[in-house]
User: Fold this.
Amino acid sequence: MALKKSSGPKESSATQYLHQRRIALLGLGVENRALARFLHARQIPFSVCDVRDPATPVEGVQQWRIGEGYLDDLTDFDLLFRTPGLPTLDPRLCAARRCGVEVSSQTRLFLQLCPAPVLGVTGTKGKGTTTALLHALLATDPSARVFSGGNIGRPPLEFIDELQPNDRVVLELSSFQLQDLDQSPHIAVVLSVTEDHLDYHADRAEYVDAKKPVCRYQTPGDILVVNRDCPTAQTFAEENIAAQWAFSTTAPSIPGAWTADGQLWACCPEERPTAICPVADIPLRGQHNWSNAAAAVAGALAFGAPATRFAEAIRAFAGLPHRLEYVAECDGVTYYNDSLATTVDATCAAIRAFDAPLLLIAGGASKGADFSDLGIAIAEANVRVVLLIGQEAPRIAAAVQQAGADGIIHCCRDLLQALDTARDLAQTGDVVLLSPACASFDQFASYAERGDLFKRLVLAARSQEN
Assistant:
């Protein structure tokens, strides 16, 4: 049984339904901690199943199930809330479903309870930038408050009690967060979809299918905004009955947004196209960020925001940390942190964002990626040096060699050695770019920790030189 969509965050029927379930939270990551606070505030009993004891206290837990067997025989529960890091196809979850146990998630519960319209953003890369820019564009409209969360860092249940029906909510949604949904956001924005997390998903097809709930349950009164430059994104529109919008960097997209003749354009249904701003005013490197800006403009217009102040918001947008983030210039060499580039496509896009000679730092933990395209991109671009670190260094080196650029490879022990080597080899006018094309978990707790270390090392070296 699914909850009915409530008219407010404390709808009595929803609370009553949860009170009647034997609830377990599977894993205590950021999202399920927010869910635990939500349940505890409503005096709804719940248990926690996790592989290890929590590092910090959690209020309201009725029962703990801790240890390696924490997912064994879940049939003593009626409702399981899966942490995003737990694959929905885990055999133990599948066994629970076969026994009639409902598997849900914090995102699904939020959509069931949210009194305000929701816009969901998904794709392989660019979700965070697009979500943040969408928030900035919507915030130019004083007629409605804007809330954003999801994969961008804030669990939306944290602000559920603040929401009113005339607010607007923007959620960045990963494949992990979408798989349990049985309803879709009012507006769905689908960016470029390639492949990622093949260490988690069964294969590329299962990864793509995991994202489709963002629009699978839309109705004729909803809106789907897709990247018309991406064939896979286009498949999301097949058999979808929502109103169809698009965005592009190659062709006009009406209704929607696009770039042409050096301008960012937009057009609502039955209106004339409007020039938003020159693409040169978009303060983010790379043509892939033109696409993100077009997606944000299309999404904001679909949400009903007027375009009159979009240009001002775009020019003021500072971008997000670890996304082609300028760090410093030292002795004529510029350093950029792109630690969130954890896929081959993201690193290829970063390489294409520069005309200057590059010293590329790449490598890290495996996500099951094929590095052939990365090797070709490196061989074809102005990359003078490739500095490889981490678990995937040998496979990236092999791909670069296969592409015919083996003479530029340097394998390094860690990020510190890679930066030391880069400083020794860099020349005036070069760019040193950290864009790993890999996860961080072999040597770091997160991509943010990796990027922060890169920035500290660069700034420390600059201060020593001064």
